[in-house]
Amino acid sequence: MTQSYFALGFGIGTRNSRDEWLEVFFPRPLLNPDQQTLDAIAECGHDTSTPLHELSSENLNAISSALKSTDAEQAEIVGKLATSNQPKVLVILASDSPPNSVPEGYLKLHLISHRLVKPHGTDLTGLFGVLPNVAWTNAGAIAVDELAEAQLEARLRGDTLEVSCVDKFPKMTNYIVPDGVRIAHTARVRLGAYLGEGTTIMHEGFVNFNAGTDGPGMIEGRISAGVVVGSGSDVGGGASIMGTLSGGGNLVNSLGTGCLIGANGGTGIPLGDNCTIEAGLYITAGTKVVLLDEHGHEIEQVAARELAGQSNLLFRRHSLTGAVQCLRNKSAIELNDELHAHN
Amino acid sequence: MTQSYFALGFGIGTRNSRDEWLEVFFPRPLLNPDQQTLDAIAECGHDTSTPLHELSSENLNAISSALKSTDAEQAEIVGKLATSNQPKVLVILASDSPPNSVPEGYLKLHLISHRLVKPHGTDLTGLFGVLPNVAWTNAGAIAVDELAEAQLEARLRGDTLEVSCVDKFPKMTNYIVPDGVRIAHTARVRLGAYLGEGTTIMHEGFVNFNAGTDGPGMIEGRISAGVVVGSGSDVGGGASIMGTLSGGGNLVNSLGTGCLIGANGGTGIPLGDNCTIEAGLYITAGTKVVLLDEHGHEIEQVAARELAGQSNLLFRRHSLTGAVQCLRNKSAIELNDELHAHN
Amino acid sequence: MTQSYFALGFGIGTRNSRDEWLEVFFPRPLLNPDQQTLDAIAECGHDTSTPLHELSSENLNAISSALKSTDAEQAEIVGKLATSNQPKVLVILASDSPPNSVPEGYLKLHLISHRLVKPHGTDLTGLFGVLPNVAWTNAGAIAVDELAEAQLEARLRGDTLEVSCVDKFPKMTNYIVPDGVRIAHTARVRLGAYLGEGTTIMHEGFVNFNAGTDGPGMIEGRISAGVVVGSGSDVGGGASIMGTLSGGGNLVNSLGTGCLIGANGGTGIPLGDNCTIEAGLYITAGTKVVLLDEHGHEIEQVAARELAGQSNLLFRRHSLTGAVQCLRNKSAIELNDELHAHN
Q1: What's the pTM?
Q2: Among the partner residues C183, C264, C322, nearest to B166 by beta-carbon distance
Q3: 3-state SS string for chain A
Q4: Nearest-angstrom CA–CA distance, A15 and A157
Q5: Is A165 close to B183, i.e. CB distance below 8 A?
Q6: Which residues of A touch B185 (CB under 8 A)?
Q7: What is the average pLDDT score of chain C?
Q8: Residue B294 pLDDT more than 60?
Q9: Contact criterion met (CB < 8 Å) for C140 and B158
Q10: Is position A306 annotated as part of the catalytic site?
Q11: What is the pLDDT of residue A245?
Q12: pLDDT bucket at C330, cuts 50 / 70 / 90
């Protein structure tokens, strides 16, 4: 076999009373699993061209033994899964096709949060349709149509069922906390977020799935689905980054490196490197902007969408005239030109 | 008897060490309970003109039996309550008068969140004075003056008492999750919120008590107490809706159908249908607005309060002049005129 | 001995598997402990010039007995700590020097949240370096490098390890809820926040460590590290207060008494008393502001930093010209002058 598989994961999860999957936790997902791992699984009698394998403890013990010589760490985890009487599943994704099941969807979200693939690095087409709406509680995941009964039963016992989230996406930190990050309030980072090393998400920060930061960076505002923020960039308190070019549809927004969006500011256009938007200013694609030269003289008036992705821009609203202005940082531009000249 | 009662609920709750109610959970509150239910309760020896009835398991078993033929579902719940040694209470509200006790206040909040009455649909006068400030923890509701002791005791055992809220109002989802909603972060929806079917409250969304959405809608901003957002309306990330006409006092704000408040925007006036406020713009009642005709020519300058409740308006701040403008969508206005002509 | 000690606390906490402190809970920290307390500790054989004392139950019982006659309440708490097999520690800070250990850092944060010292009232130099990054879970504090294992073990048992925060600072309410406050969503108030009596922190409110409110006040926006908000001041929904004069570096921001920052507004300068910033307006130090006299005539144009700390100012952006204006409230100024004349 020479085929390179996309991904693989041994998971443990939750099903509703109709035995439908609600969620799956993959302690050690693999991107492009090596051939030995696939062979070991095949030798234990599992068809590696099939994506979903609901495994017994016996199955897992056999696979654990088969993996011992080639991947001791995975073997240990698989052996531990074998000790649990919770539902266990093996997901094998031969190729990166749209997820067809809850376990497949969860494996893909894990791949991103484990930093194995970047946002947009795996096909999530149709994910919303695949994932069920789940009540996330202190007693684990509960099907929403089984919640009221569980709440009453808890009350009868004198307990409280704490329902922290009712959503298709759980919080990331209950599945994986990647190295070198702080997340002051974890409810605001969905599984499927990608947080680069050195990222701090403050209490007002938010990161959707299939979005994130290259890190390091200080995130005190909202990173919408699909958006990636470059290293060394700060998103100020309450700042907003629209998911796609505002009014534009398909162009996904992003921030380059060394950017700053001030508190309560926002952007509806992608920014290049070293861009700043002042606190309280929201730039949308249609915002008409006065471009100023290094002497503060007007060059021209353009719609912000024409500046999409450009570097070394500073956006502000002149506080006497109300005009939104864009200054180019001359030294930065020269540096940039030089860099381009050596590309 | 021909009197129509306002509401009724069998509850299970928490009391402090002085036997004062802290909170009550009503699994199945009733609006306008039918006469059979009231008769069954009366037959069991309870005076239905009295609002509060602290019930023993024996009382509940008797009522459960009496209800079996007329309301099997309620009978089952009452029977379950009988099995618990937690404090149980029956609240009967003959009329919709201001709440006089914690159980009455909680029943009214349940009525709204169960979608049995709309916001402003029940008299909540004096509710703040009736409800105690409570520490909401993973061990249930704890009186704030008994919290420090409970925290120390938990620590001695090696446990943590997780205090998630110190407030008069608990989170809604620990009492009821209505059908067809998602609430990404439940701490931001108070009991007493009304979420219409199809409502999604994102992480930055917030809904106060006696406020809510007709649904469907995407709520990523803040719905203040008293505010109702019409169906098909979106409240953008971090957007703010003041509770009453800003500076105006009594007029409660609301959004009609098909509205959009852009991210980090806000309104201090009620909006009619199909209105838009651009991202980052906050309209207050006193904001002077340039009204533009369909050709972009100025019609007049008005204070935003004069536009309160009107439909088909688009508010923006011109990014070159700083002037707040209001455009009327001509086709929408014609449609609106036609609708009015057929009223 | 005549030396006045700075602070003292008996704590119970958590250590990682390498016996390093992760966090400490001090149920009753003392500022300037009296000589009898220090003597009692010394008599039990502990050198009060040493800051850290890891105590056995035997040690604690002895100290509890020695304290009984001079501080019965502390004696009782120390006696309770003796009953626990969790790690116990006594911290004695002879002087207010920078914290050198996790227990010292936590004692200082407790001093602020217990209202024993005000923000900036204790030396926190180097605190970030002293405190470890911790995973705060429903099973208590867990070292981040031991979290993945704990998460897997919980899953094998069918439990969920709820990871609510991954940060150097825990939420305040799991350590202390001061009297007379409401905190609608506790995840947004860090240990080390100072909340004056009568403070309400709504769901969108946030208070960092070494910051807070004199109370009473309604906080629906963000109080950055170092900032103090005076009594009777309201911070509107989503409003932002920068930690230091924007662009200025060292001058810490603050709000005086009776101020209001409107929803989604913000300030990068300190405000005096009775100042208002309208909803949606962000004032930074560099904002050029048109000063108006009582007739609405322009006096001059100044940078907002020149107005730092002044009282009786109202900031707004004129909605037709886009100019940021500052009005002085004449009657308030006269009142203020009169107050000053009688100082």
Answers
A1: 0.95
A2: C183
A3: CCCCCCEEEEEEEEECCCCCEEEEECCCCEECCCHHHHHHHHHCCCCCCCCEEECCHHHHHHHHHHHCCCCHHHHHHHHHHHCCCCCEEEEEECCCCCCCCHHHHHHHHHHHHCCCCCCCCCCCCCHHHHCCCEEEECCEEEEHHHHHHHHHHHHHCCCCCCEEEEECCCEHHHCCCCCCCEECCHHHEECCEEECCCEEECCCCEECCCEEECCCEEECCEECCCCEECCCEEECCCCEECCECCCCCCCECEECCCCEECCCCEECCCCCCCCEECCCCEECCCCEEEEECCCCCEEEEEEHHHHCCCCCEEEEECCCCCCEEEEECHHHHHHHHHHHHCC
A4: 23
A5: yes
A6: 164-165, 187-188
A7: 94
A8: yes
A9: yes
A10: no
A11: 80
A12: low
Asked if A317 and C321 come within 8 Å (Cβ–Cβ), the reply is no
**To the nearest whole number, what is the mean pLDDT of chain B?**
94
Closest partner residue to C278 (CB to CB) among B147, B264, B284 is: B284
**pLDDT of the residue at B247:** 74
Contact B319 A287 (CB under 8 A): yes
Q: Please, which chains are in contact with B (at least 3 CB pairs closer than 8 A)?
A: A, C
Architecture of domain A7-130: 2-Layer Sandwich (3.30)
Fold adopted by B7-128: Alpha-Beta Plaits (3.30.70)
Q: Which residue in A173, A277, A278 has the most chain C C-beta atoms within 10 A of its own C-beta, making it the best mutation to test that interface?
A: A173
How many other C-beta atoms lie within 10 A of the C-beta of residue C72? Answer: 10
CB–CB of A323 and C322 under 8 A? yes
- The one-letter amino acid code at C171 reads K
Q: What is the mean pLDDT of residues C159-168?
A: 97
pLDDT at A330: 53
Tell me how close the Cα of B258 comes to any Cα of chain C, in angstroms.
Answer: 23
Question: Are A266 and B278 inside 8 Å of each other by CB?
Answer: no
For residue B251, the model assigns a pLDDT of 86
Confidence (pLDDT) at B81: 98
Chain B residue whose CA is closest to C77: B152
Q: Where are the domains of chain A?
A: 7-130, 137-167, 172-341
Per CB-CB distance under 8 Å, the chain C contacts of B306 are none
Q: What pLDDT, on the 0 to 100 scale, is given for residue A244?
A: 85
Q: Which fold has domain C7-129?
A: Alpha-Beta Plaits (3.30.70)
Interface test with B, best of A159, A222, A242 (most B CBs within 10 A): A222
Q: CATH fold of B172-341, please? A: UDP N-Acetylglucosamine Acyltransferase; domain 1 (2.160.10)
Answer whether residue B190 shows pLDDT above 60: yes
Instruction: Look at B317 and A322 and tell me if their CB atoms are within 8 Å.
Output: yes
CB pairs under 8 A between A and B: 137
- Sort out which chain A residues have CB atoms less than 8 A from C240's CB and list them: 236-238, 263-264, 279
Closest-CA residue to A138 (of B140, C224, C146): B140
User: How sure is the predictor about B124, in pLDDT bands with cuts at 50, 70 and 90?
Assistant: very high
Give C254 to chain B, closest Cα distance, Å. Answer: 24
Cα separation, A303 vs B145, whole angstroms = 58
Active site residues of B: 220
What ipTM does the predicted assembly reach?
A: 0.94
